[in-house]
Specification:
The chain is 47% helix and 10% strand. It is of the alpha/beta class and 317 residues long. The chain has a single domain, classed as TIM Barrel. Strands 7-6-5-4-3-2-1-8 form an 8-stranded parallel sheet. Helix 9 links the parallel strand 5 and strand 6. It catalyses: 2-deoxy-D-ribose 5-phosphate = D-glyceraldehyde 3-phosphate + acetaldehyde. Pathway: Carbohydrate degradation; 2-deoxy-D-ribose 1-phosphate degradation; D-glyceraldehyde 3-phosphate and acetaldehyde from 2-deoxy-alpha-D-ribose 1-phosphate: step 2/2.
Length: 317
């Protein structure tokens, strides 16, 4: 059964704080044990060698290749962009990644380096990773990234406001950021490691989608635990049920802690079994991981040649 939806007619005012609270706390509770058991069961699924090759290529195409360090330079971003377009210089058949994600001040560098490649430029904004800044500063952050050419904005919610039950504030901030995104897609980051419960993950998912999110994302990668299979399962259920209730499809991005090809395949199985095959494309599912791509490339080469490449064969990000 699809979960209830808080719908808005054209021109209708946003929900009040009281309406949001009533709606979010009226969502069915998450069976944490059941979610963990289902995620664990699905993670044991094995796939045939031919399907594994296809899964690796799909996972590569879903990667958001990311550098979010204080020491980032224009040169590092250009090198990352080159890798995004041609992940394996020795194999032109390897797919491009979905996007390169950088801080707002480096968006212009990435846009220029990726021009004409088809690889998107994502930018974290809104005082990433804390999300603790006045709304006007967060909106200015977003406007700057969009003006520089970002095609995707990754914003973080104010977890303090969410955990205090101030859902109206969180809703309003997401809606405001969405408005200044223009044509750029908005990914809303929950930092699920700080939300504590799967019930909160479900509430945050529905709140963000109702406020206009194009994607919902687990984590910044700066807090542990980051992405987990049970958390992603709950988010996949939410986007599935949201589409059933409203007709609008929203993407999902687990980020942080996804390091190996086995990890990536587990997430792809989860997507297929929980949300369905409509989400098995880079348009609707992304993998946020800084170290995953090299393992995918090594496993791909192993399938093709029968031997593993040396650990220094692929560039470090």
């Amino acid at each position: 059964m699809p979960e209830p939806t808080l719908t808005l007619a054209p021109g209708e005012s946003p929900p009040t704080a009281r309406e949001l609270r009533a709606f979010l706390h009226g969502l069915p509770g998450v069976d944490q044990v059941g979610a963990e058991e289902r995620a664990a069961r699905l993670s044991t699924r094995s796939i045939k060698t031919s399907a594994k090759a296809e899964a690796i290529d799909l996972a590569i195409a879903m990667v958001d290749l990311t550098t979010l360090e204080g020491a980032d330079t224009a040169g590092k971003v250009r090198a990352l962009c080159a890798k995004a377009v041609r992940p394996d210089p020795g194999d032109a058949e390897v797919p491009k990644v979905a996007a390169v994600c950088v801080y707002p001040d480096l968006v212009g560098v990435a846009v220029e380096a990726l021009r004409g490649s088809g690889v998107g430029v994502a930018s974290v904004a809104t005082s990433f990773p804390s999300g603790r800044a006045p709304l006007e500063a967060r909106l200015a952050d977003t406007r700057a990234a969009v003006a520089a050419g970002a095609s995707e904005i990754d914003m973080v919610i104010d977890r303090g406001a969410f955990l205090a039950g101030d859902y109206g504030k969180v809703f309003g901030e997401i809606a405001a950021v969405k408005q200044v995104c223009g044509g750029a897609h908005l990914k809303v980051i929950f930092e699920t490691g700080e939300l504590v419960t799967l019930d909160n993950v479900r509430r945050a998912s529905w709140l963000a989608m109702r406020a206009g999110a194009d994607f919902i994302k687990t984590s910044t990668g700066k807090v542990s635990p980051a992405a987990t299979l049970p958390v992603t399962l709950v988010m996949l259920e939410a986007v599935r049920d949201f589409r059933a209730a409203t007709g609008r499809q929203v993407g999902v991005k687990p980020a942080g802690g996804i390091r190996t090809t086995k990890d990536a395949v587990r997430y792809l199985v989860l997507v297929k079994e929980v949300a369905g095959p409509d989400w098995l494309t880079p348009e609707w599912f992304r993998l946020g991981a800084s170290s995953l791509l090299n393992d995918l490339l090594m496993q791909r080469r192993k399938l093709a040649t029968g031997v593993y490449s040396g650990p220094d064969y692929f560039t470090l990000d």
